[in-house]
Amino acid sequence: MLKLNAVSKRYGERVVLRDISLAVATGEYVAIVGESGVGKSTLLNIVAGLEPPDSGEILIADRSLGDLDDDARTLLRRDGFGFVFQAFHVLPHLSVEQNVGLPLLLRAFPPGKIKESSVRTLRAVGLAGREDSMPRELSGGELQRVAIARALIGEPKLVLADEPTGNLDQENARQVLALLREQVKEHGAAGVLVTHSEAAAATCDRRYRLTGTGLAPLE
User: Fold this and answer.
1) Would the CA dihedral through 81, 86, 92, 97 be positive or negative?
2) CA dist., res. 196 & res. 32, Å (int)
3) Cα–Cα distance between 190 and 25 in angstroms, integer?
4) How far is Cα 145 from Cα 63, in angstroms, rounded to an integer?
């Protein structure tokens, strides 16, 4: 589903990513571990087509991102990707159900289908009955569950998670990580988790360490 071939990125004289190669199949959940500033978020931005690499190639389901124009990359992100971030990015003026259904609204799904899918997905992440709640009424762990539901409602081919438990306490982090893995597997997506936490990475099928010299398997 995802393949990186010798991807490199620099900002001025600073090399951020050096010859990164990685393949993630459908149903796999892979962790990339690295310290702050090593390029984890940059790598996700490149995978998502938000930034171009300086060299190398990114393939999504055998389609090269470099062959797509801006509109095609935008559609690919909208229809094929799910994103989970450390800061949740839940919209405060929308209800839980509206937040979760937003990706389908942007894709012009019928209102009835959006509601049905939102209710079903919220049930799957343990938030049944909270459809009408506002974000201010939820805990941090619950907000991250909303973000996971929103990322998965459109049945994406690829799920990208950037430090999704960075703002959570240990118990909520444990629950959210288990839920994220479970939902990625259940939806048959390919998942990539970037994190500084080896404990978080341990929930994944394969683990890699990102450093200034490249990407290497983590034992």
Assistant:
1) positive
2) 8
3) 6
4) 31
CA atoms within 13 A on the CB side of 158: 21
Which residues 6+ apart lie within 8 Å of 208 measured at CB?
22, 30, 31, 32, 33, 215, 216, 217, 218
Strand duo 63-64 + 29-33: pairing: unpaired
Strands 55-60 vs 29-33: parallel, antiparallel or unpaired: unpaired
Kindly report the pTM of this predicted structure.
0.91
Q: From 44, 47, 54, select the one nearest 11 (Cα to Cα).
A: 54
3-state DSSP assignment of residue 19: strand
Report the C-alpha gap between 58 and 62 in whole angstroms.
Answer: 9
Q: Indicate the DSSP class of residue 154.
A: T
Positions of the chain with pLDDT lower than 50, given as ranges: none
| Separation CA 65–CA 172 (nearest Å) | 35
Q: Which of 64, 63, 62 is nearest to 53 (CA)?
A: 64
Amino acid in position 190: A
Mean pLDDT of the chain: 93
Tokens 């999704």 sit on residue: 164
CA angle 165–169–172, rounded 5-degree value: 70
Sketch out the chain's domains with CATH numbers. Answer: 2-217 (3.40.50.300)
